Please model this.
Amino acid sequence: MKNTLRLVVGTVLTVIFATGLSAQSVSAPSEGQIREKVKQRIIYRFEDEAHFTVAQGEAVALQCPANAYGLEEFVIYPVEQNMIWYSYCGQVTGKHYREKGRDKKGSVEQIGYTPCVAIIQWTIEGRELKTDFCLTQDKEKIAQAIERSARERGLWSARTHANLLPPLKIPELERIAGFVRLWSEVKYNFAFFDKLPDLDWEKVLEDYLPRVQQAETAPEYYKVLRECMALLHDGHTEVWGPRNDPSAAPPVLLAAVEGKAVIVAVKAPDKIPHAAQRDEMATAGLKLGEEVTHVDGQPVNK
Model:
């Protein structure tokens, strides 16, 4: 059986809340287990204030449109154990919901190493969690939230890195300069143009420069660079993007077997952080031992 796999750039972010008075320990749920509990889906835009109610044992998914950080989705999942869980790109962490006998009111959490901060406030009414949620990079909002967490230390918690990194956007001039330097290095130092008689490297500059100008975010930019370098058909020529760029880690591992690209490992669905990758993997139905013939519509043997 032959299938086509298209790899997509992006990240899934999951936020999980747990509430209750039990002090017993609990194992962290997987992202797959959390998604099975989603009962509501809400379109969420950065900087908006979202207000919703979610019952214990059910989940709410806040779906984000295209953005500079590749964040696609927050899932909020209250459970009965006395913990609050946070999961980012497949990594699940948790902490106690109560400290010194008092229930907390909210949390300030920096999302990975991006400048995004989630400000979450909740009120428990019976088995329901009434939640106010905002994902922001507004410095004034963040400063106020962190100050409140310090002032109400027993009721709020904050976890941020020492320095909030700039957005995952690359200025146009930097993108162009980086691409031109890379193109020039290839032009003057690549040793195997004689094996690529049909490749017009001057035309590559003309074709890819507009795409570089349009690729505003880091994942988009590095994807264009990788596609450009793939024209060289050289296994020792690579482009590495940011460490949190999911496109740098495809959900399958390929190996050359009798001249074919054969799948020798497949990542479990709950370990794939990008929702579009999960959906396309499910549609393609790729399995161990199968041959991959195309990636993004391009034959793998060219």
Summary: The chain has two domains: 2-159, 169-241. DSSP finds six helices and 20 strands in the chain. The two ends are 20 Å apart (CA to CA).
